[in-house]
Design goal:
Number of strands: 10
GO molecular function, one term: methyltransferase activity
Structural class: alpha/beta
Largest sheet: 8 strands, mixed
CATH architecture: 3-Layer(aba) Sandwich
CATH class: Alpha Beta
CATH superfamily: Vaccinia Virus protein VP39
CATH topology: Rossmann fold
C-alpha cells in the first residue's frame, strides 16, 4: 500500500471547463462487475433506500450524533469492494473455512447490523451476535443473527466462548483504559484458538501527488479531529495503537493489512475507482454527524457554533467533489489469535503484514 495510486487521466483532462461539481456525471455507474460479483456469490448489497437516522459505533457510542443510514451502508460497501477478490470479503481471520461448522461470532459496535447479517447469511450454521448501545433500524434478519442492546464495557454475561470477535469503525469510542478493558474482555470470552479482528479508518486525508492544498478543509480535517479527540480523552489514532493493544491483552500471531481508501472516482484502477465513488458518498452523508459534537465541545481556539460547523462541512463537501484533489485516507485491519492453553506466547512483538 506504499505505491502511489495512479490517476485516471480521462476523468478530467487539463483545461476542462466544466464545474468540478459535475464529476459524478462523468464517471461510470457503480453498478458494475464488482457489484454483480458480490451479488452472484449470494451476498447482500447494502441499500440506501432506508433513510432512518441511527447511532453508529464511533463517537456516537458514548456521544450520540446522528449519522444517516446511507453513510453506514457506504462504509460497509467500501470494505466489500476492497476485499472483493477474496472468496470471503467479510473478514480475514482464518475461521470458517468449513462453512458447515457452527461458529460463535460476536460483532461489537454493530451499528445497523450489516456485517453481522452478512456473516450470518454466509455461515447459516453459526450464531452471530451484534451488540451496540442503540437498536438498529432493521426489520428482518436471518434466524441465526441476534442483535442486542448492551454496553460492552460492562461485565459480559454471554455464556458462549466466541470463535471470532469482530469490530470496526470504533474510532474515538473509548479512552485508553476502556480500550484495555474491552480487549481483555474479548480475550477472556474467546475460545482457545479463536480470533479477534478489527478494522479502523484514520482521519488524516492525504494525496500521493501533493494535489491537496495545505490550507484546504481536507488538509485541516485530520489534525482538527485528532486535536479534538485528544481534548475529549478519546484519541483518533486507534489505527496506530490497536495492534499493540491487542497483543498486550494476550493475543498472538498478530497480522495486519493497510488499505488506501480514495475519496472520489479519480483512481485509474477500477476497484479503487469504485471504492472511491462509494467512500465519497460515505463522507458526504456522514461528516456532519462525525464532527458536530467534537467541534461544538472541543473546537479550537474555542468551541465552534453549529453554524460554523455547517459552513466548514459545506466547504469540505465542495472540495470532495473536485476531481483535481486526488485524496485518500488510510485504514488498517488487524487480526490475531488467542493462544491454546499449552502454547507459549512468542517473545517477538513484531506484527506480520499481509
Amino acid at each position: 500500500m506504499t505505491d502511489p495510486i495512479a490517476v485516471d487521466p480521462d476523468l478530467y483532462a487539463p483545461g476542462w471547463t466544466a464545474s468540478p461539481d459535475d464529476w459524478q456525471s462523468e464517471t461510470t455507474s457503480i453498478g458494475s462487475s464488482l457489484y454483480r460479483g458480490l451479488l452472484d456469490n449470494g451476498r447482500r448489497i447494502p441499500s440506501d433506500e432506508l433513510q432512518f437516522e441511527t447511532y453508529e459505533a464511533g463517537y456516537a457510542v458514548n456521544h450520540p450524533g446522528p449519522v444517516p443510514d446511507s453513510a453506514n451502508s457506504c462504509r460497509h460497501l467500501v470494505d466489500l469492494i476492497l476485499e472483493s477478490d477474496r472468496e470471503n470479503p467479510l473478514f480475514r481471520s482464518p475461521v470458517g473455512a468449513d462453512r458447515e461448522r457452527a461458529l460463535q461470532v460476536l460483532d461489537i459496535g454493530t451499528g445497523q447490523g450489516t456485517w453481522a447479517i452478512d456473516v450470518a447469511d454466509m455461515f447459516p450454521n453459526s450464531t452471530v451476535r451484534g451488540v451496540d448501545l442503540f437498536p438498529p433500524p432493521v426489520t428482518w434478519m436471518p434466524p441465526n443473527c441476534v442483535i442486542e442492546v448492551d454496553n460492552v464495557l460492562e461485565d459480559w454475561t454471554w455464556r458462549e466462548q466466541f470463535d471470532l470477535i469482530h469490530m470496526r469503525n470504533m474510532l474515538g469510542s473509548f479512552d485508553p483504559s476502556e480500550w484495555d478493558r474491552l480487549y481483555q474482555q474479548c480475550f477472556d470470552k474467546m475460545a482457545p484458538g479463536g480470533w479477534i479482528e478489527q478494522l479502523e479508518v484514520g482521519p488524516f486525508v492525504k494525496s500521493d501527488d501533493g494535489s491537496i492544498p495545505p490550507d484546504s478543509a481536507m488538509a485541516q480535517w485530520g489534525p482538527m479531529m485528532q486535536a479534538c479527540g485528544e481534548k475529549a480523552g478519546r484519541s483518533c489514532d486507534i489505527i496506530l495503537t490497536m495492534s499493540d493493544s491487542i497483543r498486550k491483552a494476550g493475543f498472538v500471531e498478530v497480522r495486519e493489512k493497510t488499505y488506501k481508501w480514495p475519496l472520489g472516482p479519480w483512481p485509474k484502477n477500477q476497484k479503487l475507482k469504485e471504492a472511491g465513488t462509494v467512500n465519497v458518498q460515505h463522507w458526504m452523508s456522514g461528516m456532519e454527524g462525525w464532527c458536530m459534537w467534537l467541534l461544538t465541545k472541543f473546537g479550537e481556539p474555542e468551541p465552534w457554533t453549529k453554524e460554523q460547523v455547517h459552513v466548514y462541512c459545506a466547504k469540505l463537501r465542495s472540495e470532495l467533489k473536485n476531481p483535481y484533489y486526488h485524496a485518500y485516507h488510510t485504514s488498517r485491519r488487524v487480526w490475531a489469535r488467542k493462544p491454546m492453553p499449552d502454547e507459549t506466547p512468542p517473545r517477538s512483538f513484531k506484527s506480520s503484514s499481509q
